[in-house]
Amino acid sequence: MVMMGPPGGGAFGGPSASQSSANAGLPFGGVPSEMQEGADRILSREPEHPDPVFKFERLAARTSRLSLRSLFEKRLAIALWGLLLLAIETVTALLGPVLTQQGIDNGVMQQDRGALYKAVILFGIVIVVNGATSFWRQRWNGRLGENIMYDVRLELFSHYQRMGLDWYTSGKSGVLLSRMTSDVEALTLLVNEGFVNLVIQALTVSVVTIILFSYNPVLALLLLGLVLPPLILMTLWFREVSERGYSEVRDRIASVLADLSENLSGVRIIAALNRRRQNAEMHRTVVGGYFDANLYTARAGAIYGPVTEGIGIAAQAIVLLVGGWMVLDGSLQVGELTAFVLFVNTFFAPIQQMVQLYNTYQQGQSGLQKISDILSTEPSIAESPDASPLPPIEGQITFESVTFSYADGPEVLRSVDLSIAPGETFAFVGPTGAGKSTMAKLITRFYDPVSGVVSIDGIDLKEVSIDSLRTQLGVVPQEPFLFHGTIRDNVAFAKPDATDEEIAEAIAHVGLDDTVAQLADGVDTLVHERGVSLSAGERQLIALARAFISRPRVLVLDEATSSLDLRSEAQIESVLDGLLEGRTAVLIAHRLATAMKADRIAVLDEGQIVELGSHQELVQLGGRYSEMFETWASHSESDTQSSLNPLSD
Predict the structure, then answer these.
(1) Model's pTM, two decimal places?
(2) Which of 226, 243, 319, 462 is the most core-located residue (most Cβ within 10 A)?
């Protein structure tokens, strides 16, 4: 029995849970006992949330590119109401200078206390209306923005689930992570704050321009004539420079996250091979690229901001000078000049804010572009719109003239013809790169053949829905992936509605029941990230239990014992005898001990089946399998002698 605990020692041996957290920087798997009481108090105050309702559809891919307009299309009425509140807030905020002008000209200059009090009372009413409108607008638009980003996150994650394996092998996980984190956050900032503030400032500039012309058209034309040409030129320059800069920033942060993700995943190898200093230098170079990209955009903002601010100050001085001449000539009142100067300041304040808002806009647009590029990528394994559910299968697997290659690479399989009978245990053996694992990936439809047909019970896999196919298949990879959660969660991963009895049966079937029973929390024992608190054998047994619980008609084992020691392999082999019974089984075998269990064995070499038959038939044939068996037998005998004589050299 393989005991629950840390795997074997050595530089590459798995650490214990505590060692993993301390040395590898992995997230802690539970709440410390001294903090449990406080955590329980916090959880007791948490509101009850209904279970989320979400339906995943493989055919629900986006048919048009993601844009700011498309983000608001589903909630257009809500967005229009938010814009109305925004307009009221903006207009009431601009009534201050108007009431100031009325109070000076009609109250102070005319010595009319009633007019002055009236202006002050209206001022108070405007403040209350503006505050209330601002409160409701922020609540309304905040909820709107979060709902939109909720949809974007779900759509992006669903698209990740929809993509084929080739897409993941050609890209870095850190880059994909950056799309879900930094790019979505940049878009969130744009939708929740940047877009709303941009509308506020645009409305402010428009309303102020109208008010300026209503006060004095000559002075307004002078102001716009002096200000607009240099502002337009600077804005066009800044738009081009910042668009290029922020696109580079998004690419660089993706590189930073990709490098970070790779280093965290390989931290044991880095430590074991003493590569920490070199990897730190490499990461310094990657971060330096991100640093340079941010400096580029900062320099552009440092030029644009002071220049536009200088234009605004100069405009105020010119307005004060020309307006002062008009007051002296009697063509302009003091209150009107005061309001005009105040509005000039109000006119330039939004322009100054637009510098920062434009930065937010460019970052959000760049993030939106990156996300849209992801969503517009078509999955390589596409489900036909008229795909029919695969009926309950017997398990006959057929390859008809199947040829396959990865992307533009060389052919991995060439004109393969093969039929696996229902209930047959079939093994593929051969040298590395012969195409063994590719055969398994075609059966599970992780890939489609370049030419030829792969079918189950005579039905082409391309004609059936992917869900109905994979619910009848069980897959156990060479490196079983365990998720952060309990043993129960991982065993029931393929069947979330599994009962306690079904989980217990699956665990007992793979021989882990006694081991699990000795744990304090039993099946509720926490499995840390990637199963680092378990041995390799225990991880593989849980993976086998996970495959067993869904009762698949076809079971695919891709070198399920190649990474195990002899003791763990022997235990897995004994478990397989029960798992393979009564179902079609496809074994990708690295060790011949697994292949020998098969009813028939196919020897693959250079993408073709060169030998086919039972173990005894192939040994008697005296071909490649016979040579492999003799080599394996001699090595097994040597390993056995070494274990019996541990002190022998």
Answers:
(1) 0.66
(2) 319
Beta bridge partners of 455: 398, 460
Q: How far, CA to CA in Å, does 256 sit from each of 176, 222, 259, 376?
A: 12, 50, 5, 24
**332: its two tokens:** 């302009």
Residue whose entry in the numeric block shows the structure tokens 């990474």: 563
Domain that includes residue 356, residue range:
69-375
| Among the listed residues 485, 470, 489, the one whose alpha carbon sits nearest the alpha carbon of residue 546 | 489
Look-up: residue for tokens 């089946």? Answer: 609
Return all residues near 288 (Cβ < 8 A) that are at least 6 apart: none
Report the number of secondary-structure helices (H) and strands (E) in the chain. 24, 12
Nearest-angstrom CA–CA distance, 462 and 586 = 20
370 lies in some domain: yes
Structure tokens given for 350:
């939004």
> Is 179 among the domain residues?
yes
Instruction: Express each pLDDT in 16-59 by its tens digit.
Output: 333 333 333 333 345 566 666 766 776 666 666 555 555 555 55
Identify which of 271, 257, 276, 258 has the alpha carbon closest to the alpha carbon of residue 19.
271
Q: Tally the domains of the chain.
A: 3
Q: Are residues 140 and 257 in the same domain?
A: yes
Q: Where are the alpha helices (DSSP H) in 10-112?
A: 17-23, 33-45, 68-73, 76-93, 95-102
As a residue count, the chain comes to 649
Residue 527 domain flag: yes
**CATH at 572:** 3.40.50.300
Is 532 inside any structural domain? yes
